[in-house]
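Blackboard transcription, Thursday session:
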Amino acid sequence: MVKTDKMDVMDLLFQYFRKYNRLSKEAEDAIEEISKLIAIKKNEDLQSIGHTCRTIYFINKGSARIHYFKDGIDITESFAFENNIIARVESLLTGKTSRKAIQILEDSEVVAINATQLFKLYDIYPEIERLFRKIFEAAYVDTVNRIEAIQFHSAEERYDALINDAPNVILRVPLKYISSYLGITQVSLSRIRGMK
Amino acid sequence: MVKTDKMDVMDLLFQYFRKYNRLSKEAEDAIEEISKLIAIKKNEDLQSIGHTCRTIYFINKGSARIHYFKDGIDITESFAFENNIIARVESLLTGKTSRKAIQILEDSEVVAINATQLFKLYDIYPEIERLFRKIFEAAYVDTVNRIEAIQFHSAEERYDALINDAPNVILRVPLKYISSYLGITQVSLSRIRGMK
DNA sequence: CTATTCGTTTAACATAGGATAAATAATCAC
DNA sequence: GTGATTATTTATCCTATGTTAAACGAATAG
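(Written on the board underneath:)
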């Protein structure tokens, strides 16, 4: 495996950022300083349950999910693929211990941004604070919309919507991780697929 | 009815703000300038469906809900009571037309903050941008947690949790508005209540 | 290549909550 | 206060999804 150069990856990340807010060169450099490129293998935990989340990840290659255990059952909260960020916001934004883990689903390469230092940069570069304000605002809106989808569509409709909106998920993620994301059991998901 | 003085209400609002981020006097004054005190009667729409949301409301007295129509059925997205803000974020934060309305549930007094002007203040007062960043981050985290509650608790558990977390809702809001908030029909809600 | 483990599907049965309709109860207009 | 409207409950029946168990298929280690 050829290891990707950090600079190339940071460029991708900054392109991603530009969709939300354009940064000055100095601000980009400041973010680069607090970022690390990490290679990590399938099925490993990028972050495990039980400590406060102080990192925001950008996925360069591969995929990951946030999951937790509810009454001993493994529940997927969300998926993320290349060119997107992933973070356990209920811990990152509150300082509380996270009950959730980030698990890598395919051999991956991610940029880990040190959030403690990032939040300090907010005071020096309001443009960075604005960038992440916008990123989290967009994620907030997505989450509000997701509630509607969960509450008022049947399991089958949710499955169809997932295929439409995120075909990657079905192609690249084991079904056992998808069912809980859809809010159903693995058996129900299998039944729904069987009807097609 | 004695009309409340705007200054008293703004003080309450600034106290609310202080829980998130303390503002300078100048920043508070700037917000006061773009805020209006509005009295509005039960069952009226504070904002109706179909235009872009450009206002953030703070409820001084009374209560409200955000709702929309799904296949002709009235769905409640959220409730708000005195000393809290309410806004249709899927429109406010994206600029898209809102499919949702804000309906007043009891005779109310609210502060209407002009969001177009507020967002302009972000450039002049980073402290105001930070304040609303924190407000929306907290709302985001609440929403992430709500998904878990919706997806993995029974209707009865969700009802019990509501009584616990927001007894106001049950006491002050018609049941017909509560059932859709819980993701069930009015008949199911009634059945659940009947079992107690 | 084979054995073992892990993931997925199928089957049979149970149940929470939806749909419809009708009966009460509460609220509102006059 | 009376009648009309609106909100809530109760009853019946029905369906989607849960539960458990077993069968089948795919991936992995050695």
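Lecturer's comment: The CA atoms of residues 61 and 95 of chain B lie 28 Å apart.
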